[in-house]
Design brief:
heterotrimer; B: 252 residues; mainly alpha; MetI-like fold; 2 domains; 0% strand; C: 339 residues; alpha/beta; eleven-stranded mixed β-sheet; 14 helices; 11 strands; 38% helix
C-alpha cells in the first residue's frame, strides 16, 4: 500500500460510512412516498420532485440565494481587512485570531438573543436613541430581512476571516515593500498585489459562508421573526412539523445540485495553477 | 494605512464582542429580566445546582476536543495527498458534505445509525455525536489547509527529495512546519463549529449525551434564564484565558 | 455527579450490562412538566434511578422514537400522535391491573384512545390570546387580531396547526377540516393579517407582552400563565368562535426494558397528590380530576386552565389528519410565510 493510500484512508472511510451511505438513503427517500403518519414507504415515485416545479418554491429559493449572497459579500468586505490586520500584526497573532473565534464559545443561540435584546423595540439601541431624543418612536430594527442578514454576517464572519488569514499569513512582506518602492500607494498595494494573491482564501471563505447561509434556518427564524421563509426553513419544516421526509429529501437534493452547479462554474472560472478543492 | 487598519480592526472586534459583553453584564443582574436591578452572583451560584447544564458543558468540551483532533489529523493528511494528486471521489464527497443542509445531514445520520444499530447492540450516545462532528468538520479542515497548500512552493519538497529524504521525512520536516499555522487555524475552526452545533447534534445525541447548545436552546426558547448568561460568560472567559496562555507559551 | 464513561463500542456493551443491574427508567418529557420533587420522590420510594430529559416538540421526540431504538421507556406525545404510534406498533399495551389510579382521570374516554389501552392523559393545553388590558380592550373574537388598530403590536404562534386553527375558527370552521376550499380561505385570512403581525413567535412573545412591546399575543395557556404570574395586569381569553386543544399523554414504548417500573411510574403520576403538586408548580391543566379537586382555588377556578361549561364546549381537540390534508396544510403554511 502506498503512503498515499494510508493518507487518504481515514478520510475516505469516514466519508464513505458517514456521508455516502446516509446520502444514498436520502436519495432513496426522495423517491418514496410519505407514509400515512410521517415516515416513508412504497410506492416509488417522482412526485416529490414534480412538486418542486411549483413557482412558490422557485421564489423561495431565489430569495434565499439573494440573502446568502448579500451576507457573503458583506462578510468578504468586512472580513478581509480584519484578516489583513491579523496577518500583518507583528505580535500576538494567536490572540487576535482567538478573539475572532471567541464568540463561538458562547452558544449561537445565546448570541442571537443578545442581538435581539439590542435590537428590540424596547431594546438597548432604541432606548438610547429615544433617550437622546434622536427619534420619536422606536425603530423596527428586528424581525425583518436586514436583521436576518446582520445575524448571518455576525455568525459567519469568522468563517471568512480564518481562510483569508491562512493565505495572507504566507504573504511575502518583500513583495509589498517592492510595490511601495515602485511608487504605489498603500491602497493600491492592497488592491493590486494583496487581493489577487489572497484569492484562494477569499474563494474558500466565500464557500464556507455562502453555503451555510443558504441552508440557514435558525437565524432567519429568530431574527426574522418567522415572517419570511427561506429554503432552509422549508426543508427543516418537512423533517419536523410537516413530517414529509420524502419531500424534504427531494428539496435537499435539488438545493445541493443547484449549489454544486454554481460552485463548479465558479471553480472553472478561477482555476488555480494547482487543482484540488478550490 | 496601518493605523486605518488598526482602527477598523478595533471596530470589527467591538462588533463581534458587543453581544458577549452584554451577556456578561446581564449575568450579574439580580433581576431575571432585561431591566437592570443590581449586581448579584445569584445566577452563578445557581449554576452549581444545575447538574444538567454543567454536564452538558462537559460533554460539549469532550466532544469538541475529540472531534478536533480526529478531524484535523484526517483532514490534513487528506488535503496533502489530494494536493499532490487529485482524489476525485473524496473531493466530490467533501464538497457535497459542505453543501448539504445541516438538517439533512442530521436526519440522514440518524436514519443510518438506527439502521446500523439493528445489528449491533448499541444506542445513540456520545460516540454517535463525535462521529457526526468529525464527519461534518472534515471538509472545513481540507478547505482551509488546501487554501494554504496552494500557495506553497513545491520546489522545497522536490529539493528535499532530491537530497535523499523519504516522502515521509519530507512531509514531516519540510511541509508540515509550513502548514502549521493553517492546521492551527483549521483546528480552531473545527472546535468552534463542533462546540456550537445544535441541529445535527440534537438529532443524533442519545439519552445521556446532551450538549450545551441543546440545553441552552431548551432554556432559551422559554425566555433566557441568566444562568445561561452565566455559563456562557464562564466559558468565554476560560477560553479567552486559554488563548492568552497559549500565546504566551508560544512566544516563550 | 455521573461518572464520565468514555464511550466507543466496547464500553457501550459494558454499560448496557451495568444498566440491567440497577433499576433505571428513561423518561422523555416536555420541558417544565414536573415539579422539582416529583422525580426524586419517585426514585426514593421505588429505589430506582430516573434518567429524565426534556424535548420541545413532538417531532423532535418522534424522530427518535419512530426508529424503535431510541432508549426511552416513557415519552409524552400529544394526542394526535397516539394513533400513528399505535399503528406503527411502537407502544406498549398498558396493564390496567398495575394502574389502579386510572380512575382519577377526568378524561374517561378520550377520542384517540377511549379505553386507555396505550396512553394515559397527562396535561391538557390550549391556545388563546394573552393581552394587555391597559393597551387594548378584550379580544373577545379572533377578529380582534385582524383589526387595524393592533398593527405591528401582535404576534401569532409560529405553529401551523395552531395559527391555521385560529384562522379557521375565525371563519367558524373546524380546525381539523380536510376541505381544500376551507384551508384556502384560512390561508387568505392569514395573508391578510400578516402586515399586522409583528412576528410569528412561540414562547418568545411572552417577555414582549410583559414589557409592553406587544398589545397581545397568540399563546398557549402555559406560557400565558407564566406571563400573568409575573405581570398581573395581563389577561388571557378564549375567543368566542372557539379554540384548539390538545392533550399530552404518557405512553410506554414497546422497546422499553423496564416495563414494570414504567407502570409504577405512570401509576405514581396518577396519584392525586403527585399530580396536584405538578399542576400547581407548572401551572398547566392536569387531566387528573382527583388532583384538580386538591388544587388551591385560584388555580382550580382559573378559567384559562380549567374552562368550564360554555367556554369548555368551544374547545376542539386536534385530530390525526390524513396525509393528503397534511400536505395541503403544509403548502398553505408555506404560502402564508412566503407572502
Amino acid at each position: 500500500m502506498t503512503p498515499r493510500f494510508w493518507l487518504l484512508l481515514p478520510s475516505r472511510a469516514l466519508m464513505a460510512l458517514l456521508f455516502a451511505a446516509p446520502m444514498v438513503i436520502v436519495v432513496a427517500y426522495s423517491l418514496l412516498t410519505r407514509g400515512a403518519y410521517g415516515g416513508q414507504g412504497e410506492p416509488w415515485t417522482w412526485e416529490n420532485y414534480a412538486r418542486l416545479l411549483d413557482p412558490l418554491y422557485g421564489e423561495i429559493v431565489l430569495k434565499s440565494f439573494w440573502i446568502a449572497a448579500l451576507s457573503t459579500a458583506l462578510c468578504l468586505v468586512l472580513g478581509f481587512p480584519l484578516a489583513l490586520f491579523i496577518a500583518r500584526a507583528r505580535s500576538r497573532k494567536t490572540l487576535w485570531l482567538g478573539l475572532v473565534t471567541l464568540p463561538f464559545w458562547t452558544s449561537f443561540l445565546v448570541r442571537t438573543y443578545a442581538w435581539m435584546f439590542l435590537l428590540r423595540d424596547t431594546g438597548l439601541i432604541n432606548t438610547i436613541l429615544l433617550g437622546l431624543g434622536l427619534i420619536a418612536e422606536p425603530l423596527p430594527l428586528l424581525y425583518n430581512d436586514a436583521a436576518v442578514v446582520l445575524g448571518l454576517v455576525y455568525g459567519y464572519l469568522p468563517f471568512m476571516v480564518l481562510p483569508i488569514y491562512a493565505v495572507l499569513e504566507r504573504l511575502d512582506p518583500w513583495l509589498l515593500e517592492a510595490a511601495e518602492d515602485l511608487g504605489a500607494k498603500p491602497w493600491q498595494v492592497v488592491r493590486r498585489v494583496v487581493v489577487p494573491l489572497a484569492k484562494p482564501g477569499m474563494a474558500a471563505g466565500s464557500v464556507l459562508v455562502f453555503v451555510p447561509c443558504l441552508g440557514a434556518y435558525l437565524t432567519p427564524d429568530l431574527m426574522g421573526g418567522g415572517k419570511s421563509i427561506l429554503i432552509g426553513n422549508v426543508i427543516q419544516n418537512q423533517f419536523t412539523t410537516a413530517r414529509d421526509w420524502p419531500f424534504g429529501a427531494a428539496l435537499s437534493i435539488v438545493l445541493m445540485a443547484i449549489v454544486m452547479a454554481l460552485l463548479w462554474v465558479a471553480l472553472r472560472k478561477s482555476r488555480g495553477a494547482e487543482g484540488g478543492l478550490l | 494605512m496601518k493605523r486605518g487598519l488598526a482602527l477598523y480592526a478595533a471596530v470589527a472586534y467591538a462588533f463581534l464582542h458587543l453581544p458577549l459583553l452584554i451577556l456578561a453584564a446581564f449575568s450579574f443582574n439580580s433581576s431575571k429580566y432585561t431591566v437592570w436591578e443590581g449586581l448579584s452572583l445569584v445566577w452563578y451560584r445557581a449554576l452549581w445546582d444545575d447538574a444538567r447544564l454543567l454536564e452538558s458543558a462537559w460533554n460539549s468540551v469532550l466532544i469538541g476536543v475529540l472531534a478536533t483532533i480526529a478531524a484535523t489529523a484526517a483532514g490534513t493528511l487528506a488535503a496533502y495527498a489530494t494536493w499532490k494528486r487529485r482524489a476525485r471521489w473524496l473531493e466530490g464527497s467533501l464538497y457535497l458534505s459542505l453543501v448539504t443542509p445541516e438538517v439533512v445531514t442530521g436526519v440522514s445520520l440518524l436514519v443510518f445509525y438506527q439502521w446500523v444499530f439493528r445489528f449491533l447492540d448499541v444506542r445513540l450516545g456520545l460516540h454517535t455525536v463525535v462521529a457526526a462532528h468529525i464527519m461534518f468538520s472534515l471538509a472545513y479542515v481540507v478547505v482551509v489547509v488546501m487554501a494554504r497548500l496552494k500557495t506553497m512552493d513545491r520546489s522545497l519538497e522536490e529539493a528535499a527529495l532530491d537530497l535523499g529524504a523519504t516522502e515521509w521525512q519530507t512531509f514531516l520536516r519540510v511541509t508540515l512546519p509550513q502548514l502549521a499555522p493553517a492546521i492551527g487555524t483549521a483546528a480552531l475552526l473545527v472546535f468552534a463549529i463542533s462546540f456550537d452545533d445544535y441541529v445535527i447534534t440534537s438529532l443524533v445525541a442519545g439519552v445521556d449525551s446532551e450538549t450545551l447548545p441543546m440545553v441552552i436552546y431548551t432554556m432559551a426558547r422559554k425566555g433566557v434564564s441568566p444562568s445561561v448568561n452565566a455559563i456562557s460568560t464562564i466559558i468565554t472567559v476560560s477560553i479567552g484565558i486559554m488563548t492568552l496562555t497559549a500565546e504566551r507559551w508560544r512566544r516563550a | 455527579m455521573r461518572r464520565r464513561d468514555l464511550f466507543f463500542l466496547g464500553l457501550s456493551s459494558a454499560a448496557a450490562a451495568c444498566r440491567k443491574a440497577a433499576r433505571r427508567l428513561y423518561v422523555y418529557n416536555w420541558s417544565e412538566y414536573v415539579a422539582p420533587e416529583t422525580i426524586p420522590d419517585f426514585e426514593k420510594e421505588f429505589r430506582a434511578e430516573v434518567r429524565y430529559a426534556e424535548f420541545e416538540s413532538n417531532e423532535e421526540m418522534l424522530a427518535k422514537v419512530f426508529t424503535g431504538n431510541s432508549g426511552w421507556d416513557i415519552v409524552f406525545p400529544s394526542n394526535y400522535f397516539i394513533p400513528p404510534l399505535r399503528e406503527n406498533e411502537l407502544l406498549q399495551v398498558l396493564d390496567h391491573a398495575r394502574l389502579p389510579n386510572l380512575t382519577n382521570l377526568a378524561l374517561k374516554t378520550p377520542p384517540w384512545d377511549p379505553r386507555h389501552e396505550v396512553s394515559v392523559p397527562y396535561m391538557i393545553g390550549a391556545a388563546g390570546i394573552l393581552y394587555n388590558p391597559k393597551l387594548m380592550p378584550e379580544p373577545a373574537s379572533w377578529a380582534s387580531l385582524w383589526d387595524e388598530r393592533v398593527r405591528g403590536r401582535i404576534t401569532m404562534l409560529d405553529d401551523p396547526a395552531d395559527t391555521l386553527g385560529a384562522a379557521l375558527k375565525k371563519s367558524d370552521l373546524s380546525i381539523n377540516t380536510t376541505r381544500e376550499a376551507e384551508l384556502t380561505r384560512a390561508r387568505d385570512e392569514l395573508i391578510r393579517q400578516k402586515p399586522l403581525v409583528r412576528a410569528y413567535l412561540n414562547a418568545e412573545a411572552r417577555d414582549q407582552v410583559m414589557a409592553g412591546d406587544l398589545m397581545a399575543a397568540h399563546l398557549w395557556t402555559t406560557t400565558a400563565m407564566q406571563a400573568i404570574g409575573e405581570a398581573e395586569h395581563l389577561r388571557f381569553v378564549y375567543p368566542r368562535e372557539g379554540y384548539a386543544e390538545y392533550c399530552d399523554n404518557a405512553v410506554i414504548l414497546r422497546e422499553s426494558r423496564s416495563v414494570d417500573l414504567a407502570h409504577n411510574f405512570l401509576n405514581y403520576l396518577l396519584r392525586p397528590e403527585v399530580a396536584a403538586r405538578i399542576a400547581s408548580h407548572t401551572k398547566t391543566a392536569t387531566a387528573n380530576e382527583a388532583a384538580w379537586r386538591l388544587l388551591p382555588s385560584e388555580l382550580k377556578e382559573n378559567q384559562a386552565l380549567y374552562p368550564q361549561g360554555e367556554t369548555a364546549a368551544r374547545g376542539e381537540y386536534f385530530a390525526t389528519l390524513p396525509a393528503s390534508t397534511q400536505q395541503l396544510r403544509d403548502r398553505v403554511w408555506t404560502e402564508v410565510k412566503a407572502a
